[in-house]
Design goal:
This is RUFY4 protein. The protein is mainly alpha-helical. It contains two helices and four strands, in the order H-E-E-E-E-H.
């Protein structure tokens, strides 16, 4: 009986040692899991802070974009108003100048053998042209070809096309 009790005690001690070893291993595993959980919580807090910061920056950018868009819309409104003012001013100036006639070029000299502008003689090599606007007689050098309409003297051309001078 004593041997049996000793064998049972030895088996119980062996079992107790194994249970302590398992308990120690489980405690180490729990400690590792707690450490991982702590790191995961810290990472979660960092990500939450980064997310809050990113949301705050996005809201600030959106507010700045909205303000810029409002400024641009106001600028467009101002530019449209200014354009309307300029168009009205242009119309008023056009109405004022509509009744003004362009000055008539100086009449052609009585002598039909001379150019009305440079007073050169018309000869065999210097051709005579009639200005289609003032009907003056001008030479080739004192006239401008205006395409299908024919030729006109420089003075009439300059009066009709001031940007050409």
């Amino acid at each position: 009986l004593l041997q049996r009790l000793a064998a049972l005690a030895t088996a119980a001690q062996k079992e107790a040692r194994q249970s302590r070893q398992q308990l120690q291993a489980q405690r180490q595993e729990v400690a590792q899991l707690q450490e991982q959980l702590s790191r995961a919580r810290q990472d979660g807090e960092r990500w939450a802070l980064a997310l809050q910061r990113a949301q705050r920056e996005a809201l600030e950018r959106e507010a700045m974009r909205g303000a810029e868009q409002a400024r641009q819309q106001e600028l467009i409104r101002d530019m449209k108003g200014r354009l309307l003012e300029l168009l009205r001013e242009k119309d008023a100036l056009w109405q004022k100048t509509e009744g003004i006639d362009t000055p008539v070029p100086s009449p052609a000299p009585r002598d039909a053998g001379l150019c009305a502008r440079c007073h050169k003689d018309f000869r065999l090599l210097s051709r005579r042209y009639n200005c289609r606007l003032c009907q003056g007689k001008v030479c080739h050098a004192c006239s401008v070809d205006v395409g299908k309409q024919g030729r006109c003297c420089l003075l009439c051309y300059q009066q009709r096309h001031p940007q050409a001078t």
